[in-house]
Write a structure and sequence with these properties.
Order of helices and strands: EEHEEEHEHEHHEHEEHEHEHEHEHEHEHH
Number of strands: 16
Number of domains: 2
Radius of gyration: 22 Å
Strand order of the largest sheet: 9-12-13-14-15-16
Distance between the termini: 63 Å
């Protein structure tokens, strides 16, 4: 068994898409694994193909007050099967020559980890791996992340990775290191099932060139099983961190890196709030820290009580997103947790009374579902606006291993099984007619 710690390179790949923007998006899983490895003496290198702060960037840097900002984009050819479209397709992130120079600058790694996010960004993952292989053809490369887990067979066939893994990475770390480097990773925390999230180090956000905001997970998994969502497939068990552990992470990044904006990645931030979210919010309020919080993954409306709204406002929440999905308040509704009209109106009232402004509160409305009645969508937009909340259209992405996947395949204008690129939500793959596409375009303006 090899005793000297290996050198591992972690890479966050390019995005290939019609549009992309840094909406508080960081490879939290990859950086979490990097932190564990670093604690065990492993030498870590990190290259972010989406690095907005790259030293070779000559354009003026745009950073919004909440830490978000645009990626550099470079036009590239449309994917096979979409050449007929009159739309621009781009690589988002640093230029390939910058990436090659960054790869050449580090010492040769013993192992390379590449992550993946959206399934329809698969071609960006492949281009990243192909370029890595031109510099380090003999170094084993492991692909993980959401695309690798949801489209595992496709990733095995096409990505170019030497190993494609699915599921949480922590239980697999020791076996991967031993197989490819011979190094024995003896970390008892990783042997427990389930792993105690409080025992793990904070994600290695400091490997980034800059930290304009910090993503935070107070839990993993979701107690709900919405038909369009793969959260329960990717993380079947809901696991929580202690409020004290989360607070320590927030103050760590604020005090050591000056981070002010935090984006909660949770799928269930306010579920069982009395035991989890409320103690955290009360601790933040008592500290007097001037922090800003954002909830891009949406809050469950039923959990937005008067107390929750007041605590969030006092703690410094600036961006609130609610998972409404539709205002078809009927017994047949099955896309989400069956929120009632009264519950939504009450949640909106609580948020407004707590002090949140209309532009801070958005309600996600699913758009582009198989067989969706656009009259209902238009009605939903009007209902949300009447409640004094911003309607936010969430374009439906067909996702493998969800309850809607089979129906999406049957209703799609594209062969969703051929390549994940055809599931891109901006293609509206399950909208069947040009008339409906035109109407959706009109509804955007509402």
């Amino acid at each position: 068994m090899k005793t000297d710690p290996p050198h591992i390179l972690c890479v966050n790949p390019w995005i290939h898409d019609f549009a992309a923007f840094d909406f508080w998006a960081k490879p939290l899983g990859l950086l979490s694994l990097a932190a564990i490895l670093r604690e065990n003496g492993v030498k870590m290198s990190y290259i972010d193909c989406l690095d907005r702060f790259h030293p070779r960037e000559s354009r003026p840097l745009k950073i919004l007050r909440d830490g978000r900002g645009p990626f550099r984009k470079t036009p590239i050819p449309l994917p096979a099967g979409l050449e007929h479209m009159n739309r621009k397709f781009s690589r988002y992130g640093i230029l390939p020559e910058w990436f090659l120079a960054d790869l050449a600058r580090i010492s040769t790694p013993d192992l390379i980890f590449v992550t993946s996010l959206m399934t329809y960004w698969a071609s960006g993952v492949k281009e990243t791996i192909d370029l890595i292989k031109t510099v380090y053809p003999d170094v084993p490369l492991v692909l993980g992340g959401i695309y690798a887990g949801l489209c595992h067979d496709h990733a095995v066939r096409t990505s170019g990775a030497d190993l494609v893994v699915k599921g949480p990475g922590e239980p697999l770390l020791a076996g991967i290191l031993k197989e490819f480097t011979g190094f024995g990773l003896e970390d008892e925390r990783l042997l427990k099932s389930p792993i105690d999230l409080d025992s793990l180090p904070f994600p290695a956000l400091d490997l980034q060139r800059a930290i304009p905001y910090a993503p935070v997970l107070t839990s993993r998994g979701c107690p709900f099983s919405c038909e369009y969502c793969a959260s329960s497939y990717l993380e079947p068990v809901l696991r929580r961190r202690s409020p004290e552990g989360v607070y320590d992470e927030l103050t760590h990044w604020h005090e050591t890196q000056g981070v002010k904006n935090f984006a909660f990645y949770d799928d269930a931030l306010l579920v069982n709030a009395e035991a989890h979210a409320f103690p955290l919010l009360e601790r933040i309020i008592a500290s007097g820290l001037d922090l800003h919080f954002h909830t891009p993954n949406a809050l469950h409306i039923r959990a937005v009580t008067k107390k929750a709204a007041e605590l969030m406002f006092r703690a410094g929440f600036k961006t609130i997103r609610l998972g409404l999905e539709t205002t078809e308040f009927s017994k047949k509704r099955s896309y989400d947790a069956k929120v009632t009209e009264e519950e939504f109106v009450l949640a909106a009232r609580h948020l407004k009374a707590a002090g949140f402004k209309e532009q801070q509160i958005g309600a996600y409305l699913l758009c582009g579902l198989p067989g969706q009645n656009l009259d209902v969508l238009e009605s939903s937009i009007g209902f949300v606006k009447k409640a004094g909340i911003l309607p936010v259209l969430a374009y439906y992405t067909p996702i493998p291993h969800t309850a809607l996947w089979a129906e999406a395949i049957q209703n799609s204008r594209y062969d969703l099984l051929q390549h994940p690129v055809f599931t891109n939500n901006t293609l509206f793959p399950c909208v069947g007619s040009d008339l409906d596409l035109k109407r959706i375009s009109q509804l955007k303006n509402l």
